[in-house]
Amino acid sequence: MNEQQHRDQEHEEFDLSSRESQMKQAHRIEPWLGRTFTCGSCGQEHSVPLRKVVLERGAMAALPFYAQERGLSSLLLVSDGRTAEAAGRKLLELCGEAQLQARQCVLPDDEHGELAADERAVVQLLLHVTPDTQAIVAVGAGTLHDIVRFAAHRTGRAFLSVPTAPSVDGFASVGAPLIIGGFKQTIPACSPEAIFGDLEVLATAPRPMVAAGFGDMLGKYTSLADWELGRLLLDEPLCDLAADMTRQGLELCIRHTADIAAGTEEGLRKLLEGLLLSGISMLLVGHSRPASGGEHHLSHYWEMKFLQAGRRALLHGAKVGVAAVKMAALYREAASLDAEAVRASASQRLADPDYAAPDAARADIAAGYGAIAGQALAENAAELDPARRVVLQRQLAERLSSRWAAVQAVCRAVPAPERLAELLAAAGGPVTEAQLGVEPELVEESLRYAKYVRHRYTIMRLHEWL
Ligand SMILES: NC(=O)C1=CN([C@@H]2O[C@H](COP(=O)(O)OP(=O)(O)OC[C@H]3O[C@@H](n4cnc5c(N)ncnc54)[C@H](OP(=O)(O)O)[C@@H]3O)[C@@H](O)[C@H]2O)C=CC1
Ligand SMILES: O=C(CO)COP(=O)(O)O
């Protein structure tokens, strides 16, 4: 029996042959592992190279056996000072006991006493990847996983994951958000092939990282709504299976808010499950659209500005949670408008020469940023050649008027900002920009420019038409 047949046999209890059977499994992790199937929702072929997830106390002990089974005998275990303490050293011992050749690489902090997923960290890791290295193991949180994800992908090594905190949905994901030249961009890379979520290790994670994981999940309310807007107004492809999987992950976390807030084992398990479901949904579609919308663009903008100013980084999920409250407020404002008012402001917008050719805005952005980041933002603002932009803007104005009832339904489905604030507070995360440590001026600036962090339709882009 070859490897694929073996996996098919292992998974035969999970029927993924129809849309109905696929949608029925959207709340579970197991059915998707190692599977390739035609999606009953979007018609695309989805492939999930992630083939194993162990989520239990002592899960780390399963890693050496997995490596042996896969014939991976030479491993590079990558951590930083903190996660080497939390898990790296123990894993090294476990690998030694299993007669594997494992080396530990502890990535050094930068001048701010932290590790960023940037060019420097990637090169530092590559220096440790020797010709005999067969697998690179990320032992850490989101940043460390992205550094390893990129290096493993580019060097063709197997990528294994040991999350040390349930802080982001990036563990199972496929893209590596890296800071290159001061600009945060997501580079397509690969998912790990196995994840060992050890509940004993996760329990060592600082509480703000648990609250941050919850904040990253709350952001899915607005990222999913943004994706719906893209479908409605720009015919953007949307995979209902991926969207539903993300929603199921989100709802799982909401149902267990109290446990997550209390940091119980059940809470950590459910949070990581939710984060993994969200990661797998990105894996299905090959990009982060289900999981990342305007709230992430705001968060990335703050992150880049902090970096530029040499300030210590804030936790990703903490920023996303606060930004989601901001986006929910824009959704609420949009929901309150009637079709007539929208028609009038869209016509006004079309007639605005500055908007039709936003060169002034572009120059403004480029001036306010360092060379590379400024240029990247400006390119996203320019978006399309001017003639095509005019055609698309007319179409958008027409659709905003004729499809307003449907747009409004999407806006109304986003919970009120007060509700998101309440959930964040319950989980122990920051709720306001003041609690987070982002100045009101930066928030105001980001609400104008963060929409150019990516080529993605979001509530921020809709809002400028209202
Ligand atoms: N690929 C994707 O799709 C996604 C990627 N991300 C990215 O993830 C990054 C943020 O990751 P996040 O997890 O929030 O933060 P970091 O990975 O930066 O971790 C913050 C700090 O916590 C430390 N830490 C982790 N676990 C423990 C522990 N058990 N005990 C003590 N300290 C610990 C980390 O160490 P260490 O540095 O060793 O980890 C680090 O010093 C961002 O760059 C974001 O863009 C976010 C979502 C999705
Ligand atoms: O953080 C993410 C999902 O939570 C992914 O972010 P990007 O959209 O920048 O890749």
Automatic annotation (TrEMBL):
It is an enzyme of class 1 (oxidoreductase). This is Glycerol-1-phosphate dehydrogenase [NAD(P)+]. GO terms for molecular function: glycerol-1-phosphate dehydrogenase [NAD(P)+] activity; metal ion binding. Its EC number is 1.1.1.261. InterPro entries: G1PDH, Glycerol_DH. GO terms for biological process: phospholipid biosynthetic process. Keywords: Cytoplasm, Lipid biosynthesis, Lipid metabolism, Metal-binding, NAD, NADP, Oxidoreductase, Phospholipid biosynthesis, Phospholipid metabolism. It comes from the Bacteria. Residues 1-21 are annotated as: Disordered.
